[in-house]
Amino acid sequence: VQRFHDRDWIEDAEAKGVLTSDEARELAALRDLVARVIAVDDFSAAELARNALSGQSESPSNQHIAAE
Questions:
Q1: CA-closest candidate to residue 29, choices 48, 4, 10, 6
Q2: Model's pTM, two decimal places?
């Protein structure tokens, strides 16, 4: 099974018997969750430029706050 951006490698693995349907479903769900987490850091060029020019971010401080 080869992993390319233009193919569904999970579907290929299931079709070849490398993964069961349950394993394929779980991997697909995890892939989608990872994509949602990564998308949180998707900022437009205008947002990045505005923050760079002002020298500040929109967060109140640089403290690390644990996720709830």
A1: 10
A2: 0.53
